[in-house]
Records
---
Amino acid sequence: MKKTIAIILSLAMIILSAVPAFAAEETYNIGICQLVEHVALDAATQGFIDAVEEALGDKVVIDKQIAAGDSNTCATIINQFVSNDVDLIMANATPALQAAAAGTFDIPILGTSVTEYGVALEIADFTGTVGYNISGTSDLAPLDQQAEMLIEIFPEAKNVGLLYCSAEANSAYQVKVVT
């Protein structure tokens, strides 16, 4: 978790340093779409906000919206951000990223709490680079190390069951990688 937050903060600093210097009266408008309130998602969002506010101080206006777990609400939030012409969208969780990717090709999007960008964005032959206005961090666990640990703890096991939500692309991806 600390590694993910550190990566998010680093990306935020890189993106914000690439923005031209602002005049004293200009502000940078950031829209944050977070799928649901959850301790891990909240921590990622807060880490991003802290880094941005440290870098820009009072020259940033942040509009943080929670979608209450509804991907349709993510799309509505993103459409508001696009209509308001925000300077950056931070999409926290896969449905928020998917809504942002569908909503704009012009506004930079920073994703977090996304396991696999290729799966989330349905990019065939994904090489690790999205290639347009999207960047971000992955929360993919070290699956090979987890599998090794299971073998070490249960060396006599013949079969292992994996519980996952087949409707969640990231869950299905992780099961596919492990099996």
---
Amino acid sequence: MTDHVILLHGLWMRGFALLMLHRRMMEAGFRVHRFDYMSVAATQPRILGSLQARIRELGQDAHTVHLVGHSLGGLLALRACADDDLPPGRVVCLGSPLKGSAAARRFAGMGRGGEVLLGHNRELLEYGFDRWDGAREVGVIAGRVPLGLGAMIGQFDSDNDGCVTVEETCLPGIADHCAIETNHTGLLFSQEAARQVTQFLHQGHFDRPLA
């Protein structure tokens, strides 16, 4: 029985940004679906309601339904999966600031325009979660090539992907974490990211070379 994978894009993006990752997940043998949503204009309850309905629809007949979310998409995936009555599956977050984003907080602090551009998910982006206590195993892939607008806004002093620091992705309670050589947007196009996503969805851990 083939597992389903739902892909979620991040802030200021739409579903077409997931095309390369979609293709690679299909090549890995998954049944892949892109969840498109309005990341600024749509309210969080509306997004989560639609996402949970889609998970339940795909999970009929005991199908496993995994979620893979980039940036904000990973935050929304975790929030949606806090409900324990959903079909089984794992979650992979790509460059998601699960502990909150310094760049988002600085952006919001620039005035009303910054607040508006962060949309209805502003609080989730700024502050994230304290820890993950949900039933699903969660893996996180961070980038550590500091190329992106967020590097200037966030004024990072540690490893980052140009938008999110590696530390911001390290949420207590997750099953596994790895960092790869790419920037924030590059996580969607990286062959290594797709390989690690596939590994985690199958095994519940990332692939690391033997010492």
---
Amino acid sequence: MRVLLTESASASAREVVTVLARQGHRVGVVEPKRDGLLTVSRRVKWRHKVPLFGAEPLAYLDALSEAVAARQYDVLLPIHEQLAVLSRYPGAIDVPFAVPPFSSLARVQDKAAAVELLRLLGIPLPVTSLVSSVAELRSAASFPCYVKLPISTGSRGVWHVDGPASFAEISVRTEVADTFARGWQVLVQEPVDGRFVMAQTVFDHGVLVAAHVVERVREGVQGSASAKESVSMPGLVSDLEKLGAELSWHGALSVDAIVDSVGTAHLIDLNPRLVEPVNASLAGVDLVGALLDVSLGRSPAPLSAGRVGVRTTMALMAVLRHGELGHNRRAVAAELLSALFRRGVYRESPEELLPVPFDPPAIMPLLAVGSTLLVDPAKWRSFSKPATGPTTVLSPAAWASLTDQH
């Protein structure tokens, strides 16, 4: 099939292309410029230029419609937050795709609304206060804690606060003031000690059709996972099944959670999209295939559990993590050598993000990052997620424009 992806910058887009190409599909992407992880991939057949999504979602939607028509695609896969504009205007694109109802999306996209939803369903989450002013924010703060804007991602609009000084800095930030000015609530969330896990699911109009859970074995840059292992967590999957049914969810839904010492998974983030599906694919769970099926109105294969203990690595995230932690060039070099010779955490763990044997140009991002950080590890920020934010992430103003029209 001809499959069009809604962006090309993110790790998820890179991995979806890998899975699709391995299944024999031909893939196109839309992008404002060629600077993401798929810049030089041999597995992308068509590229279409579009405006920056985060700043101009409606102009992006018009360009996306033109791209669909240009190559007569069979199906569209929303990879990142572009699904928000597709959910808001489902009739604007003349090709099959799967997105939830906009009213359901709003209960997940808005972190404050998501807190209320989880409380309603009795799904565990960390102790959380919702505040509507700077005064309430100051009253709710206890240290350590996390302060989260309602429209944000793990690397944008989320802060770990370890004391009064950092809290004072955050409380006067412009984006916090803007959030309160819009009448939105900010989250103050207590940390939970435990293991970090990520779950990916696909729903067919509220019915769970695919699910996979991985544990973060090793932390990567900006909270990502540079090493993962597939795990079995039926309790978490059951909670997500309840969540999807409540929302009549259609399409992909992913969550991050912390599993405490007694095995309870506390949900800390909900993402209305498919996240990094290669580990699932290697474990025998075809999340991408399930998403294609529900997009095309086909009945997916029966829900089944994948293999436990499947490990994968993401060398790029590990190298960038050294820069984030302030490590020296020797640490960067050691990481690169371990990845090259498959030593340590890389032993018997396939590379999921940059599949060089399958797509040789995929090595280019790692070469660019590695060579830069070998000279100056502090330059990791030039490769960090916020640099591609407007490509993949809705700005608060853009989200407000979509909700105001609904």
---
Amino acid sequence: LKLFYDAGILHQLIGAFKKVLHLPQFDGYHHYPVDLHSIKCIEALENIHDPHVKALYTPLSAADKLLLKAVILLHDTGKGRKQDHSEVGTKLILPFIKNLKLPAHQYDRAALLVRHHVTMSNVAYRENLYHEKTLYQFMSKIKTPENLTLLYILTYADINGVGPGTYTSFGANLLHELYEASLEIASQNDRIGDALKRQNKEKKLINDSEFSALSKIEQKKILSIESDLFFFKHTPHEIVAISQQAFGCQNFTYALAVEAGLVIHIFRKIPLNLGYLLGKLSYLDVASMDIFTLFDGIKYFKIEFLQRPKEGTLEQIELIIDEAFDMSKKLDLPKPIIKPGDITLECDHSIHYAQLNLTTANQRGLLAYFVQLFDEAHINIATAKIHTNKNVARDHFLIEKQNRMCDNAREIIAKLVGE
């Protein structure tokens, strides 16, 4: 390659280099013009010094090594145009790959690697690698462990091809951490799919006029909300409306609405004695309840009941809600019948959260009893989805992993069923 470059015929042999022939890069980062940088990247691939990268490269099949070399050679040939060079590069790589007679399933892989050839370094250097949202969003783009491995090697070669001293031990550690963490969650296809769905929801929200009218700080707070379900469940208008109410919350605020049944909306910064509240209102059947952790320590509760309250009782219900912010209040709740098989605890749901699922016969005061036990066990509910249909309660609680919860899963379930 260097011989062809020095002879001035590289662009004649590989047409994709015509637009980047001796193209300088005045970005304060790259040491070489685009075409020479590409050759330096190939040199780095053929002389891998990082033991982690070398251990991944050596066992690759001949087809994968050929694909990787082609991608590394042409990854920047989309530069020198008005469009994003990564997107242009995906169009340039395909004819080259086809000429190499590689299998058809490699075409999409080659395009993906070129499209995301700067993604891994951007995520490793700029984002929080200990935040699971970062990992799921990253893997939603990369899709498979095989693509991840090839991208890691490509990123190594790309950085080394920039110039001497660019690939540092600090950067190498960040890339390796991102690779290992992403590999760990790569098999969780449902969560990766959620991350992709979340990204699409965020794009719609960002393009919404009501969202655009908010301050940049307010927008950032909304996008920082952990719960994917919050974004899946609500329209952009609803997300903005809920968030605007939360922005004005000092200690707590609530609103009651009477639709098909009673609906209570609560925003709180200070602790809410949810078990007490549900216990006092247990004469009404809970149809659904959502709990979302928003921002600035604010939680949002939406509790929907099947029945409408009796006329003239709304003031009494408001008094109960006010009292529910007194954490010293306790109720002697009747113990519902819950079997051990009615409860499952998914500790591998995500890095920071476990999911507790309850499917059992609906019983008066069931949810109040359950939530009160959560409070007593200091189990923090991040998100809850409560649903009752045909006299069956199907409740899902996303709870923070704490106090060696998953090590004591059997004991926690035993306490919840009253064994």
